[in-house]
Write a structure and sequence with these properties.
27% of the residues lie in helices and 26% in strands. The protein contains nine helices and 20 strands. Its cofactor is Zn(2+).
Length: 443
């Protein structure tokens, strides 16, 4: 167990890791992740609000709201006083994967295959020879004409993408490119027909939800690896799982918010569509967060446009998205002075070209929080001769104007079908974010 956990906290650390593995296992899609986060908030006393309803907010309120069923914002308002500042943590619910095409059925060599499109910057090679399930959201029409959105999780090995034997491709290990259109359609059913998917979807809906007499109108479904999350290593130092980027941050942000004392104004936002640019109604570039904050300011803030600006400028945002850890087999891929280690604490991510939102003021705030929480902290800057990814941090800072920094748990194999992070870093970042949520003053 974590060396950073105090002896009296060992059981708490183990329970947190157990909750994490369960959350990862039960969240094979952004819609499932959002539903699972909503359930945790409801169990903790947060009430659900609908954007289409009128809101009646008062100091001390705790609520959450979703958009597209794949993004969620939870808010804790300070008790007995108007809200003048907010401690905000941001993450994203989506991960790179293979999404079903609308007309997915195709047959070849006597097999039904399902055509896919690549969602986000997926690392494709690890998808071959895996037991694949299928999960996401469907919209169905009932016999009475009612249209309903339904989550589906086919948690059984219904598909596989078989590799071509090396005897038939002697150059397979020479770094050949993969064609997602022609080489990555999963195999589903021997002797199947192009239109069998409709029949299969209805059978899966009946098995999971008992739904009969419905018509599938449309769907957003993706394949996922059925291998469950696990603790790996002789000392269980590692977490291996699909979708660590970025469900790990979603989980840690949620845990920290529920661990906090609740005295301060707190917000957790987990947006969909970060992996494809965030430009959507429920993505970080969309108006979701601003819409919620304007309603908060209108009812429990100053209630004016100037008051909204004052609220934003008095608040801080910590964007949480995993960082690239130093890989023992590829140490030359990191700047020699900026190679974060697993289990050595959260990573402050900095980029001079604003691919990350961190500046010296927000970084100083986070370093101070980590010191208060007795948590080690690291820094990542990419090599000067390499490109750099980005997060919701710069987008949120641009859209809202809120002072922001980017941090994350270090991990290996980002965007693979199975990623790896340090088990001790879950506690590290949770403690740092809890200290942030509990801080009476924001610097």
């Amino acid at each position: 167990m974590s060396q950073e956990c105090l002896p009296k906290d060992d059981a708490g650390c183990a329970k947190r890791l157990s909750r994490l593995l369960e959350f990862l296992h039960r969240s094979p899609s952004p819609w499932h992740a959002t539903a699972n986060m909503a359930k945790r908030f409801e169990d903790a006393g947060y009430r659900r609000l609908l954007e289409t309803d009128s809101w009646d907010l008062v100091p001390g309120d705790r609520f959450y709201v979703t958009r597209n069923d794949s993004s969620i914002i939870a808010v804790n308002l300070p008790k007995g006083q108007p809200v003048t500042s907010l401690r905000m943590v941001g993450a994203h619910t989506d991960s790179p994967n293979l999404r079903l095409k609308t007309h997915a059925g195709q047959t070849s060599a006597g097999w039904l295959q399902l055509g896919v499109q690549v969602y986000g910057g997926a690392l494709l090679a690890p998808w071959f020879d895996r037991d694949l399930g299928l999960a996401g959201r469907l919209h169905v029409r009932h016999a009475d004409g009612r249209v309903e959105g339904v989550l589906l999780n086919v948690a059984e090995a219904i598909a596989i993408i078989p590799s071509l034997a090396i005897h038939l491709d002697r150059e397979a290990n020479d770094g050949k490119a993969m064609n997602a259109q022609t080489q990555m359609a999963p195999v589903v059913l021997q002797g199947g027909k192009d239109d069998d998917l409709d029949r299969l979807l209805l059978a899966w809906l009946e098995k999971e939800h008992g739904l009969t007499g419905v018509k599938v109108l449309d769907f957003e479904l993706g394949f996922y690896d059925l291998q469950p999350p696990s603790l790996v290593g002789v000392g269980k130092e590692l977490i291996a799982s699909a979708r660590l980027d970025n469900l790990l941050s979603c989980f840690i942000g949620l845990e920290a918010m529920l661990d906090a004392d609740g005295e301060q104004g707190m917000v957790l936002v987990a947006n969909d569509h970060e992996e494809v640019g965030s430009a959507s109604a429920c993505g970080a570039q969309g108006p979701f967060l601003a819409d919620v904050l304007k309603r908060v300011n209108g009812q429990v803030g100053e209630g004016t446009e100037e008051g909204y600006i004052r609220l934003i400028q008095s608040s801080r945002m910590i964007s949480c998205d995993n960082a690239h850890a130093l890989h023992p087999n590829f140490k030359d891929k990191h700047d020699a002075q900026h190679g974060p280690s697993l289990n050595a604490g959260p990573v402050i991510k900095t980029n001079a070209n604003q691919r990350y939102a961190t500046n010296s003021a927000t970084a100083a705030m986070f370093r101070d929080l980590c010191e208060q929480a007795q948590v080690p902290v690291q820094t990542f800057i990419t090599r000067a001769d390499m490109g750099c990814g980005s997060t919701i941090g710069p987008i949120t800072a641009t859209e809202l104007g809120v002072p922001t920094l980017d941090v994350g748990v270090p991990q290996w194999a980002m965007h693979s079908i199975r990623e790896t992070a340090g088990s001790q870093d879950v506690e590290h970042l949770t403690r740092a974010l809890t200290a942030f949520f509990d801080s009476a003053e924001l610097v």
